[in-house]
Amino acid sequence: MDSDATTDTRPTPRPGGRSARVQRAVHDAVNALLGEIDRAQITVPAIAARAGVTPSTIYRRWGDLGELLADVAVERLRPDTPPEDTGSAQRDVLLYVTQFADEMASGPGRTVLRDVIGSTAENRSGTCCNVTRNQLELLGERAAARGEDFPGVEYLIDTVIAPIIFRILSNEPPGEARVAALVAHAFGTMPDPSRAAPALSAPSS
Amino acid sequence: MDSDATTDTRPTPRPGGRSARVQRAVHDAVNALLGEIDRAQITVPAIAARAGVTPSTIYRRWGDLGELLADVAVERLRPDTPPEDTGSAQRDVLLYVTQFADEMASGPGRTVLRDVIGSTAENRSGTCCNVTRNQLELLGERAAARGEDFPGVEYLIDTVIAPIIFRILSNEPPGEARVAALVAHAFGTMPDPSRAAPALSAPSS
Known about the structure:
Chains A, B: InterPro entries: Homeodomain-like_sf (IPR009057), HTH_TetR (IPR001647), Tet_transcr_reg_TetR-rel_C_sf (IPR036271), TetR_C (IPR011075). Chain A is an all-alpha fold. Chain A has nine helices and no strands.
């Protein structure tokens, strides 16, 4: 048995191995090409040539171009640094979520979202959600260390992250005020102003 | 003013025109092919041949295959009938949303979601969101006619629809109990059990 075989439950390749080198080279090639030519014109052979591997290496490992682009997209979602520490749990979350919303609503952010969601790989968008979950958990641990209350992470995902992503995907990206309202609502510091129905006119039956 | 006019902003082709006939024939061809061969093998020329139009008619109207598949997908999302009237606003919403979640979480439902979201057309997923919005508005009007309270439709979208779709896209489709909890929470009849953080262990400092 070749221990190098990928089962695609995303075992991260050992940092020094050939597998990791191939992954790095192919990801770098995709990112370089994305900076040079239109995304629709990127092909597996072009990526392979740039990365110095054979196309069949790419097909064997990623399945197809869509999977590879989604894999690169998820990699980009992974933050380089922990969220900033503002000294307050709610401000920490607000800052993180505001940046997250900005990033996701940008042109490249939407492309990333669509690559990830459009990908057929069973666990790809799970990975994407996990990146956000890990960041929020980190903020929750920080709040606990300060003795502050913190909403459940799954609750924050449902009430803050989900509406942001849903609205972006529906081409109605939320503004800063809306993001702040979602966070404040999740922290229980204010009722969501959209909670009450805006004067639904009763039918004149 | 024709009280029957739909508020959908998509310019629906006139029912009897050539444009409508082409649209119907092409949609039917796509649906027929989807039932016969693998989706990845469907091509514009195959659709054109089946629909009795030229490929250039399809390219001119839909741009590319992805757009056409997304258009067919949105059409499928459009419900044939108004949501069932259970006599209570919360039960109406629960019934509609439970069916919606089931449908979206199914294999074909996810394909529809991905086609719509993966489509680059600016207003496609907006249309998709509008279908749901219209159904919820209808339930709100029904509640108003009964003199019942009803949460804001945008609030329901953010707190019920968004988390359902987000969890499905993240490969964590919500179960029936979770859907019921989201609806009850939106109606203010119970606190969301995931609101409180589940025993976050404070660092042992």
